[in-house]
Each structure stands twice: as C-alpha cells, then as structure tokens.
Write a structure and sequence with these properties.
By secondary structure, this protein is an all-alpha fold. It is built from one helix and no strands. It is flat, with a radius of gyration of 18 Å. The two termini are 33 Å apart.
C-alpha cells in the first residue's frame, strides 16, 4: 500500500540570544555534525565491503 504524500511545511524563527551563546551553540553543532559524519562514513564503508 502506497503512503499518501501530503505537503510538508517548515517555518524558521530568528533566535535572539547573546553572542557568547551563539558561539557556544555553533561549536556544539559543529561537533555533533563531525560525529554524525564520522559515523555515517564508517557505516558506508562497511556497506561497501
């Protein structure tokens, strides 16, 4: 049975925070992205072999 496709919407709101918090969040997101990409790379290598 095919899944019914419905439109999906995303809305973004600006985050008004102090600069020091913005820098802290950017660092944490960067670290999380690096961990995610490393894990993804390992899994993709395992799949290829």
């Amino acid at each position: 049975m095919a899944r019914k496709i419905e439109p999906t919407y995303t809305i973004e709101f600006p985050l008004h925070i102090p600069v020091w918090q913005q820098h802290r969040l950017e660092k944490k997101f960067k670290m999380a992205r690096m961990v995610y990409n490393s894990c993804l790379g390992e899994v993709l290598n395992d799949i290829k072999q």
